[in-house]
Design goal:
Layout: H1 3-14, E1 18-22, H2 37-51, E2 57-60, H3 62-66, H4 71-84, E3 91-96, H5 100-113, E4 118-121, H6 127-134, E5 140-146, H7 153-156, H8 169-178, E6 187-191, H9 196-205, E7 211-214, H10 223-230, E8 243-247, H11 249-252, H12 260-278
Parallel strand pairs: 1-2, 1-8, 3-4, 4-5, 5-6, 6-7, 7-8
Bound molecules: ligand LLZGTKA7.
The ligand O=c1ccn([C@@H]2O[C@H](COP(=O)(O)O)[C@@H](O)[C@H]2O)c(=O)[nH]1 binds at residues 21, 23, 61, 93, 147-148, 190, 192, 214-215, 217-219, 246-249.
Catalytic activity: orotidine 5'-phosphate + H(+) = UMP + CO2
GO molecular function: orotidine-5'-phosphate decarboxylase activity
Protein name: Orotidine 5'-phosphate decarboxylase
Amino acid sequence: MNFLEQLRQAESLNQSMLCVGLDPEPTRFPTGITRDAEGIFDFCVAIVEATADLAMAFKPQIAYFAAHRAEPQLERLMRRMREIAPKVPIILDAKRGDIGSTAEQYAKEAFERYEADAVTLSPFMGFDSVAPYLQYKNKGAFLLCRTSNPGGDDLQNQRLASVDGQPLLYEHVARLAAGPWNLNGQLGLVVGATYPQEIERVRELAATLPLLIPGVGAQGGDAAATVKAGWRGDAAGATTGPVIVNSSRAILYASSGTDFRDAARAAAQATRAALHAARMI
Ligand SMILES: O=c1ccn([C@@H]2O[C@H](COP(=O)(O)O)[C@@H](O)[C@H]2O)c(=O)[nH]1
């Protein structure tokens, strides 16, 4: 089964467009979880167990593991997630981007060491920096397109005078990902929930690509506006790309007490319901 099929399966199984982000920050851990690498593992397992039937995907952010020397714990977590939620794909948020020979190593890290189903990439070093990931035919790769942070404007909203029609940079990335770069149908795009108009524009340019949309919850993006802008499907809507809406901190840190599992589950349920309800609007 390829990554797109995995996404469709999880969306239908869990009736969900929610991606639960795993950004474990030890200083924010609830009572009873140790603030070290083993605590990172325990905390993430607890969150995955609490949300396994609510998620369309999980998205561990590699920096939160690497910063705390918890790469072995991330490897173990990836295996444990397969046991807890075998049908929920895992997107490794690594935002890699480098020359081809180095990208080959990063691809190996993501897909062989961590066994992720998909990875996030920066496209700004060009196609040869993306190509090594496409050698892994069943895996997916999400290119940063219009990111959720305010600084995304600095480059992504600049016009490219040298390209036909003078598109904005993020529009050009969307066209490349939907067209000549998408050799085997493995690409998706990252678009911030904080910019619904741009989500709409990206959906126009890349109708069938999966969109990974971070920015609801802690960053204040609106769930309903996000779905309205990016989701075009219905039950027969397999021709339009899936929408995968990420929330990390709002779920992970819904409570700092011993009830954190229940609180995370409740927050995930509320976000999943808000996303689902927005399909009807
Ligand atoms: O444009 C982007 C791309 C990636 N992210 C990542 O998503 C999560 C968001 O976390 P929240 O706690 O839900 O704000 C985090 O891992 C970012 O690195 C993003 O926010 N924006």
